């Protein structure tokens, strides 16, 4: 993960330098200060720095235990751990998508339609979040 | 002999990457605000005086304190303690801390609704002028994020009640919701400084 951290910090440094360069160059060319591009370039440094900072924190909390891709002696299947719990099938994403689509439709053509769809979104959110917390498959 | 390898939690890393994209979303909103302000400085001078600074400062402190209570909830979740073992805060579980966080966040949103009503009564509206558009777009999208965070806290609290054995998977949802909450809190500090302090 060391390489990933360094890459993110290199990106952050690049955007920081590019942002400062942009401000100075823009000023020297006689243009008024333009906040939109300035902020976007500088906060791109924030975007990269945030991920770099977090990966670095994760890397240190692992106490020197490396990822398989960071080790020369690792085998392919070391990089194939259990990566999470995934539902084999579920209707909830479909219902959530449907509800979200109708909310957006309502915002476009008439707010009253969205008012009917918001409960569908909330029910789908709750249903999806608690799908494996109740009934036969409850944890 | 296979080497001992470790994997970062994909939910936590994924949340941080998504929060990176949220940084850029708010970058767009800040850019809108600054661009409009640069285009109409005299409008800012007159309209920004209608803001109630002490009220906004109080609301800000409430939101910032909710980040601390959320973090104490995370510490409880990391000890895998969902519920309290006594009335003292040191014995609280994740559920109690997150309920307190929820209350503080709800006070913040209610305070913002009150502030919006005050501003509208003074003629600052979303469609009224550039200042109103910039103010309500930036603080409004932030308020929607806070509201989304409140719903997320409810879902995590619900899981704390529903689960038979509070484990690392439940702790992970508590941790990533706290990441989101801290992020929204930091964005508000930025908005507060830009809108209420810099004026």
UniProtKB/TrEMBL annotation, chain A:
Annotated localization: Cell membrane
This one is known as Cytochrome c oxidase polypeptide 4
Described by its record, this protein's role is as follows: Part of cytochrome c oxidase, its function is unknown.
Q: Which UniProt keywords apply?
A: Cell membrane, Membrane, Translocase, Transmembrane, Transmembrane helix
Residue intervals passing through the bilayer:
6-25, 37-57, 94-125
Mind naming one GO cellular-component term on file for this protein? plasma membrane
Q: Enumerate the Gene Ontology biological process terms.
A: electron transport chain
> What kind of membrane protein is this, topologically?
Multi-pass membrane protein
Q: What are the recorded GO MF terms, alphabetically?
A: cytochrome-c oxidase activity
Q: Which family does it belong to?
A: Belongs to the cytochrome c oxidase bacterial subunit CtaF family.
Broad class of the protein's primary localization: membrane
Q: Which organism is it from?
A: Alpinimonas psychrophila
Its assembly, as annotated, is:
Associates with subunits I, II and III to form cytochrome c oxidase.
This entry's Enzyme Commission designation comes to: 7.1.1.9
Catalytically driven reaction(s): 4 Fe(II)-[cytochrome c] + O2 + 8 H(+)(in) = 4 Fe(III)-[cytochrome c] + 2 H2O + 4 H(+)(out)
Pfam families per the UniProt record, alphabetical: Cyt_c_ox_IV
């Amino acid at each position: 993960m060391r390489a990933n951290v360094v890459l993110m910090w290199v990106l952050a440094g690049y955007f920081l330098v590019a942002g400062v360069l942009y401000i100075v160059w823009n000023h020297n060319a006689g243009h008024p200060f333009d906040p939109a591009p300035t902020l976007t370039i500088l906060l791109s440094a924030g975007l990269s720095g945030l991920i770099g900072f977090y990966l670095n924190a994760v890397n240190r909390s692992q106490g020197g235990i490396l990822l398989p891709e960071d080790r020369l002696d690792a085998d392919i299947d070391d990089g194939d751990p259990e990566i999470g719990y995934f539902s084999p099938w579920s209707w909830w994403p479909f219902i959530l998508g449907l509800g979200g689509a109708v909310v957006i439709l309502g915002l476009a053509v008439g707010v009253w339609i969205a008012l009917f769809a918001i409960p569908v979104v909330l029910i789908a959110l709750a249903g999806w979040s608690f799908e494996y917390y109740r009934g036969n498959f409850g944890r | 002999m296979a080497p001992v390898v470790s994997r970062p939690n994909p939910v936590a890393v994924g949340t941080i990457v998504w929060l990176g994209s949220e940084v850029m979303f708010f970058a767009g909103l800040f850019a809108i605000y600054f661009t409009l302000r640069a285009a109409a400085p005299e409008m800012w001078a007159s309209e920004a005086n209608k803001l109630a600074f002490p009220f906004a400062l109080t609301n800000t402190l409430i939101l910032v304190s909710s980040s601390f209570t959320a973090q104490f909830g995370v510490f409880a979740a990391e000890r895998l303690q969902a519920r309290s073992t006594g009335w003292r805060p040191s014995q609280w579980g994740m559920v109690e801390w997150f309920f307190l966080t929820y209350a503080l966040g709800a006070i913040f949103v209610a305070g913002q609704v009150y502030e919006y009503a005050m501003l509208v009564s003074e003629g600052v509206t979303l469609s009224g002028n550039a200042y109103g558009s910039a103010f309500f777009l930036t603080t409004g999208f932030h308020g929607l994020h806070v509201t989304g965070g409140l719903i997320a806290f409810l879902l995590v609290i619900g899981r704390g009640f529903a689960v038979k054995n509070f484990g690392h998977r439940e702790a992970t949802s508590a941790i990533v919701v706290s990441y989101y909450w801290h992020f929204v809190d930091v964005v508000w500090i930025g908005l507060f400084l830009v809108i209420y302090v810099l004026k």
